[in-house]
Amino acid sequence: PGTEITPLLTPDPTRPDVCIESTLPEETNPCRSASLMAAAEQYCAALNSTSSGYAACFDDVDPAGFYEDCLFDHCSGASVACDVLKEYERACIDAGEIDIVSVVDACGVCNGDGSSCQPTCVGSGDPHYRSFDGVAFNWQGQCEYVLASDCRSGSRVDGATANAFEVQVRNSRRRPLPGRQVTATVAVAVRLPAVSRASASVVEMYRSLANAQLNGAALPALPYADVYGNTITLAGGILRVYAGSVGATVTFRGSTVRVTLDGSSPLLNNTCGLCADANTVSADDAALSQMHNHWIAN
Predict the structure, then answer these.
(1) Half-sphere exposure of 218 toward its Cβ, with a 13 Å CA cutoff?
(2) pTM above threshold 0.90
(3) Contact, 140 vs 111, CB < 8 A?
(4) How far apart, in whole angstroms, are the C-alpha atoms of residue 228 and residue 243?
(5) Region 47-64: what's the mean pLDDT?
(6) What span, in angstroms and rounded, lies between the C-alpha atoms of 40 and 46?
(7) Among 33, 134, 145, 233, which residue carries the largest CB count within 10 Å?
(8) Which of 269, 289, 260 is nearest to 119 (CA)?
């Protein structure tokens, strides 16, 4: 009191020179009925159940505050509540907990089934996979594997040509958890398509952004673009690799890798690897994706 405090922020000409403090009314709880609360509790259950996919993180990041925020926000609108779930997952990853099972589908929808967006293949956790056509499976492999590759006629002879788009993942050796042994994705390599083997580039992504590489050297200044329409960008702590000529985006954060195809991508119905074929037919994915040993990168 009696001391003048100098503002540090640049003055905003739209605000009055003198700010008059006033008290705003407190927000009222939007969960006004039992039905609204029940729906919110079901939507936010991952934050409040010891059997949920988030349970492995509860000791590292207390979910209580997130749960209350999720309930409040869901009664205001589910899309807002989804942001709370995403924020909890980010907090778990930042705390070093990689064994959570995400409730966010490939389209960014919480508790969704991945059917509302572009074809996306996801590998996460210890590890859980979901193919481009939405088939979920688990694979505890300890090697390096082809996750997704350009398999158009002429692009592949039992392996993509040296200048075709391909995503490979490196899984860790099995590490023991109570009652089980699991692996996790620790690195991702993306071969960017080009006109020749000599001009093709490889982006390597690791859990630490500082270790990311382009052609075996530290990443150049970002955003990066080459003459083939390939780009590398960084936003929100997530490295994004885009192969423009085939309309494919690859991201890697924590232990979750995502490969998303544009709606007009020439790779639709033309991919192979653990992600299967992106032909919108889920019935054939199990046979393709579970050829585990066939997709080992040696």
Answers:
(1) 3
(2) no
(3) no
(4) 8
(5) 93
(6) 11
(7) 145
(8) 260
Which pLDDT score is estimated for 32?
A: 81
- Residues 165/193, Cβ–Cβ less than 8 Å: yes
Decide the pairing of beta strands 180-182 and 128-130.
unpaired
Q: Give Cβ neighbours of residue 288 (< 8 Å, ≥ 6 apart).
A: 131, 272, 276, 277
Give mean pLDDT, residues 287-296: 76
φ/ψ bin of 216: left (φ > 0), alpha (ψ from -120 to 50), beta (otherwise): left
Are 295 and 276 in contact by the 8 Å Cβ rule? The answer is no
Residue 22 is which amino acid? S
CB 297 within 8 A of CB 145: yes
Q: What is the pLDDT of residues 256-272, one digit of tens each?
A: 899 999 988 999 999 99
Asked whether residue 63 carries a pLDDT value surpassing 60, the answer given is yes
Indicate the length of the chain as a whole number: 298
Instruction: Name residues whose C-beta falls within 8 Å of residue 254's C-beta, 6 or more positions apart in sequence.
Output: 93, 98, 124, 207
